[in-house]
Amino acid sequence: MDKILEGLVSSSHPLPVKRVIVRRVVESAETPLSQAQCRAMFALSTRLILQGPDSFQRQVGRQVLEAYARFHRDEFEAFFNRGLVLGLLQRGYGGLGSRDPAILDYVQAGLRLIISCPSVLELFALLQVEALRMVCERPAPPLCARLCQLLGDFPQCLPRGRKLSLAFCQQLVRSIAHFQSQGSRESELRLYVSQVTQVSGLLRSIWKAEPDTLLPSLQELFAVISSTDTSFEPSVALASLVQHIPLQMITVLIRSLTTDPNVKDASMTQALCRMIDWLSWPLAQHVETWVIALLKGLAAVQKFTILIDVTLLKIELVFNRLWFPLVRPGALAVLSHMLLSFQHSPEAFHLLVPHVVNLVHSFKNNGLPSSAAFLVQLTELIHCMMYHYSGFPELYEPILEAIKELPKPSEEKIKLILNQSAWTSQSSSLPSCLSRFSGKSETGKTGLVNLGNTCYMNSVIQALFMATDFRRHVLSLNLNGCNSLMRKLQHLFAFLAHTQREAYAPRIFFEASRPPWFTPRSQQDCSEYLRFLLDRLHEEERTLKALSSAKPSENMMSSESLAQETANKAQVFTEAPCTGGEERTLIEKMFGGKLQTSICCLNCKSTSQKEEAFTDLSLAFCPLTSLDNVDMRSITHSSEVKDDCMVQTGIVASSPVEESALDISLAVSDRCETVMNEGILKDHLPAELNSANVTDSDLYRVQDTKNVSQKPVSENTPSVTDLLNYFLAPEILNGDNKYYCEKCTSLQNAEKIMQIMEEPEYLILTLLRFSYDPKCHIRRKILDNVSLPLILELPVKRTASSLGVVSKGWSVDIEFSDTGENLAKKLKPSGAEEACCPELVPYVLSSVVVHSGISSESGHYYSYARNITGSGPSLGLCHQSKNMALASHGSLLAGEVSHAVIENDLDANEMSKEWFLFNDSRVTFTSFQSVQKITSRFPKDTAYVLLYKKQNCSNGFNANSANGLWVNGDPPLQKELMDAITKDNKLYLQEQELSARTQALQAASTSCSFRPNGFDDNDPPGSCGPTGGGGGGGFSTIGRLVF
User: Fold this and answer.
1) pTM above 0.70, yes or no
2) 652: number of Cβ within 10 Å
3) Of all helices (H) and strands (E), which one includes residue 721?
4) Model confidence pLDDT, tens digit, residues 195-207
5) What is d(CA 951, CA 289) in angstroms, rounded to the nearest whole number?
6) At what angle do helices 162-177 and 214-225 cross, to 10 degrees?
7) For burial by CB atoms within 10 Å, which of 19, 221, 568, 1040 has the most?
8) Does an H or E element contain 104, and which?
9) pLDDT digits over 526-581, tens only?
10) Which residues are part of the catalytic machinery?
């Protein structure tokens, strides 16, 4: 029969005839045959299966083998024995090599036929050994897939025993690492992917049946991808294994990898790069999850060098994967994390900028819903990056044009995304006993390191930094090549905005801005420091402008280089978007106002007036009786010169003064005068001053006793409004303080009135809390609580010529050289009274500097602040205040009339806005309620310096933000500044990494000692100690009162 069959299949008869005869041969298998005949048929069918030249002969071989083996099972069991199988697997068959998948096909078919025979157990044992041997020989994908299919159908052939099973899994992992696709056509790639899927499926089955093999298999996987051997590149097919790893193991595995001291940086870098390459594998699931988890794990243990290298090396590859829909979701997730966490430098983002526009246009053009959804996500990512690195408008213009029609995330959402994604915000995987450097707090704000009793500077700088319009002006100045104090302030502001550090050490700025009479490492008055700082900045700018205008006349074109130098200096304090011939300094623009002092002789009724510039108003506390009747005041002035600080209430008309070019405050002493609040008295108007003599100042007076007593804050707690009204209330000069009238040529009783003529953009109010005690020769602190209104309305006198026009400049020339003479002698009599129309100018509270302690020589300063722009229409204050001012002149009180209207409208809007508490290195979220209740909760913590922002009817700072180039609202930084910040951020990450590695090495051999965050340094001599109070938002006294 075998001879007939062999001749038939090789004959030239038609195929239908051959099939008829083959069917009869198969049917004859039921007839009894001798053992030799059966063996001949089995041998023939085996040869046809393995060596048949065409598919017909191979099919005939399989049909005959199956039929005769079923009816002659004993004979087939004897034929299909251990020797045959071993020979096939090790030597092949004839010209067919042992590594041909057809061998495994034949073995699998034979196993099915003898599955019920006892000898199959011997074959299972043989195949367990042979399977391990085969995977150790790194079979090609087709053979390995065929082997795995056989082992999947017959799990009895899998290596048994923990060692053999573990070895098989590890070797199978290494076999996958050697897989390479043999073609590039789609059909070939699909076949390759299916083969890899077959192999990874077997591993999944083993891991599920024997969980003990999973972790060693993954260790082998990591060993493969972390290899630094350049002669071997593991296959991307390893990505197929990731989807079979339980996600619950992420935490354990990542912690094990990132904290293992035996894993070198080079190996970890290789492993991470290869995992990112896995994003190209089309069917792999959860690859992006593991990649992001490893990135976060490395950030948690401060291995920033690896993260920087990998990001710069692979960011473009990840971006390119966005072009392929099949792998786009995972690629976008990894790209988002890599970009958002790489916050110390724009380098990674700028590698992608040239390719963004093309990708956006591609997404727009294909019209697929999935592409539209991904485009929205990509746009959000791009906005976040341009917000964080806003100093490159020339790079971002094409991108902004391409995405202008797509939704833009809110600034709050962008900040939240950036804060959560930064490397320094990742939770640590180190043991809890290990302290580590921390990045910025959850607020996204940067603290200032206390350099030794420098809290007075830190609190002021943070308040100025949070003055949004002022900060933007400073950052927009072109100061390259200038070593001025303004340049140092710009440098400090830039670092506060962009550094990755939790707290920045302002050593250079402190040394440059510290007043010469301030003793280093001793507590000072923050108000005095603020005045000195603003005065220095103002004078410096005036000097540079004067030099730039004087040089051309002194050296008429002496040389081209000299001319260039002059031109450069002329532009030093010119903002990048230059607007023309503004002569005012930046300090004048932001903080400068004008105050008019009028003195009316009560004898001859002649009036003298003088206008002076101010940058802050110093508000004295009213005597208790003054709250009931504050129509007029008679002030006994007393001055004491101290070595530490200056606190003033107003202009002293009877004493000579020495002022700088700009009268920084209404204080007129050289440096250090104080007001004896104990000597402040209030008198009623004399009978001579009847209703016929009432002047314009009555429009600014506080209401009568009845109205004042109705105010809740006046029952027990005075408000800033009360102190401001008291400051502006008329004052009677009599007794020893009589006024010398030039018309009467004698000392006469007089009425002094102060009126604000021009309001500043930022109103600085200093509460005079330190009064001089002549008995003890110390300055005592007034601990009275003061209510802080969120909205303050400042009465400003408008002349007829300026009605309807809010002055934005110092339009009246001030003779600064005259301010050093006796004020009374310089006041010039005025003619007829100018018609005026007082106006209430609305201000919103921007920041509060708090002093904690009981004396000016000790204690602690911290500040509350929030971001407020110059935008007014949203609050609706401008229109309301003007209407109210015109409606009722008789009720124009500072903050009196429209509080009920405005505060009701703003409660929901303003109260919910974020406030920040700046306490040296620590920055935390807080609320306006905390600001209001600080003194009631901590009696030694009192508001000292207040900054109010004027609510203009148009944005106070209009630059390129209109066209979208100022993505985050702040101007682009100069390249020199951005480079310095990038360099320092990288240094900071290296410091963190070094610290983490040192701690990890010491953790095993030393006991852990934990020092809580917030300790700036040890208590220096003469520092705060217990006198600093206990406030500041609830921080511990020990941690908070270290200066």
Assistant:
1) no
2) 22
3) helix 720-728
4) 999 999 999 999 9
5) 48
6) 30
7) 1040
8) helix 101-113
9) 999 999 999 999 999 888 888 877 665 554 444 444 444 444 443 444 444 444 44
10) 455, 860
